[in-house]
């Protein structure tokens, strides 16, 4: 994958980073700043020298004229595309209302809605507080948010919205997200429309609001037309500050350049067409320098309708690492002559620099991931691209070096594809390692500059006899006495023979000493070469594996400490060099450990970010599946299920314009289908009713209207009506007195009292004649039957019913007495009485089967 493709992969993260930098609604021109310093005190030119020796600059200038406030004509475009639904539409209209309240009475406003096409809500300019503007705002509130935004059409409409000659400021205000069909910033349309706006001296300012915002487009538009832009946020004062800032921008003064004269020291500058210069913020130019020094910028143009010439003396400052992003920014500006530069003031330049640095960090993270997967070639490419954007990206530098060493240490590129040296002496006369010898050793392990010169031998020449003898075991000790000769089994010798042998032994001893010196020199040379080799490999390992370099140097120091048969001066020099390299390696290891810890932290953050991206993409995929299912159901006119799918989509992503639109469409379609079905049913029922009416007017010769039941049914109904044969249409006075007495409250507290005594007490208390019928006496209730019953405050008839029921008895009012009868005969027709009586008003008939008034 190419670096450009990987940058596209990181574009979404860069957009999020840019929005994060603009979370508060603060204008890039809130205060007049010079580059990244404090308040503007004059023109400045900050510079940065890249690794190729090229000098890049960023220059801040502002017109040295007194601002003049003039009345303004303002065209306000309010975005009504699908992305501006819900809370964004409400906040956009609130911002518009606050902007109108911040304008002066002399200002005039024209209101336009913009989505697929510009729609004029007012045909002309009116006062901000006029009735026409109020009506237009109400129409705007009623407008449905649909479609996408045509920013190119808006700019073209803006160029034709003002009179050609006027002494008033001409300003365009856009309230929306700036997201347009197919993109606009990198197209020729953007340049054409911006040039028209500048030719007509029309400035464009924006208030960015919406779920996704094209900040780069709005910033570039403000930069090239002499406007400002503000960003919405969750701050309670965001809309208030944005409206006030837009009003201040509308009333600000602008210097419109016509011709520009740049000094010879400037090789190139961007934008090629110098933007309009505002008095309330500085204007930024970037480019490259031939040389530093004093220079002067001269620009001629118009200010408040008058020709004006301005000059700025500028001195290039020393190179500043804070502007390391300039080479990349200028490289991007060369593509379109700086038309896409979003550098609206020093704050805009700062944000552009942060985006470049953020892209560098993103490429570093991608390089981390490539290294983690073993793709060192891609890691090297990504790290180099990150360093191109930010030469001081330490993390990218470490990754680039590590990738380079990894590529060099690969089997196909390893120049030392031999067996590693051994780590211990096999004998006293053999070195601990097998260092490369001869010419190959000289090429691969050059001596360091701080090495002490020592006699060198031609290691490529055939070895001398003495050098060959160094591998031969040592000679036995020289026999110096006669007893010694005898001790080794020598025959008795004369004195001359002894002297001869002693002379021969001295000569051999001298030869042995010379051979030992040569052996020490050879061993010293080999250890020197091995030390150089180990130091070279340790230097290579310090960048990517300092721990391995430390172990390598320690092992070589141990070898030197265990080897005594070398030149002491050379041995001490070699040991000092190894100790110095060991200290350096330890320092490198501390730095490397810090970098590795930072890498691990960044890797963890990268993995977390990648997980968030995967979750986001998974949600987007689920949303796309739900919306596809929704489209299919809508085509099938299955509005009920489509409504459920739309609800799931909106629950998954409440901020998705597609999900919101789908939910609204489904609910409207479902309601329309229900209304349609109800209308059809109503029409069908109406016709069915008319049909029944027509049928009722038809004669029925074979269907008689009256049908009589058979004889058995008549007999059953006659038996059922038998109980109503004895009906009193009005009771006599005595019966009515008994019935009224039964409705009076009663109090019983009886404990084993004979029933006859209770009847006598009721007769005395209520004036009721009570008769115990034979049916009750024959059953279970007699005069001497003991009664236990306690009740208080209920009507007498209910108390009697409760008292008699345990004894299988009840009562009726008949023949001017209260008769106590058995429950078994209560259903006999003999005891059926239907009473119609008046107590106060006429009361409905009471049917008292088996209980008379007591059962009612």
- How much of the sequence lies in strands comes to 15-25%
Tell how many strands the DSSP assignment holds. 24
Q: Report, as a whole number of angstroms, the end-to-end distance.
A: 98 Å
Order of strands across the biggest sheet? 10-12-2-1-14-13-9-11
Describe the sheet with the most strands.
8 strands, mixed
Features:
856 residues, alpha/beta, eight-stranded mixed β-sheet, six-stranded mixed β-sheet, 26 helices, elongated, disordered N terminus, disordered C terminus
Could you walk me through the main structural features you see in this protein, from its secondary elements to its overall organization?
- The chain is built from 26 helices and 24 strands.
- With 856 residues, the protein is α/β, with parallel strands linked by helices.
- Strands 10-12-2-1-14-13-9-11 form an eight-stranded mixed β-sheet. A six-stranded mixed β-sheet has the order 5-4-3-6-7-8, sandwiched between helices. A three-stranded mixed β-sheet has the order 15-21-24, with no helix packed on it.
- α5 packs parallel to α6 and α11 packs antiparallel against α12.
- The two termini are 98 Å apart.
- 35% of the residues are buried.
